[in-house]
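Hey team,

Sharing the UPF0301 protein EO244_04090 run so nobody has to redo it. Sequence (196 residues) first:
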Amino acid sequence: MDELFNIFRFGSNDVKPAKGKVLIAEPFLEGRYFKRSVVLLTEFSEDGAVGFVLNKPTHLNINELLTDLDVFESEVFVGGPVQNNQIYYLHTVPELIPNSFQIFDNLYWGGDFAILKELVYNKKIERDQIRFFAGYSGWSAGQLEDEIKENSWLVSSLGMKEIMAVNNDDIWQKALTQLGGNYKVWANFPKDQSMN
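Structure output:
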């Protein structure tokens, strides 16, 4: 019986949060923004953390939200509950968008929006080079570490391909399956727990 009970206890792993890591929500974490979410950390320090939810689509295109980008079709994702009336972006073209912030390798966020508009109108940026988010996820000093201790999140890594993919409805399941062990059990846990 103890063995079975242990399978259903979701414990955090020993990976520490850092810029470029992802947070994987535990299966019982509720809420509109974080239920079954995978969050890319774009900043992490003793002052707090910032990230973007990778797998919550708004079902709107950027050209529906920003008239400045009306010629560009790219789905916008819900980045989190903070400033969700603002648009943020991840991209892989720092040589084209100055003043961007490096996350890891060739993955950046933000940068000069006026230059981005020019790139869009001149067709010098492709859909697979940029992802848009409405809002972001933010944690104050020590808040994320406390949530990890409470087993709300696992910390892991994902490759550039997974992070930049817009068709990633199953990224939560894939991230858990990659971790192996008991975490694979959670990957198949039903969304509606009453169906179990």
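The chain has one domain: 23-176.

Ping me if you want the raw files.
A.
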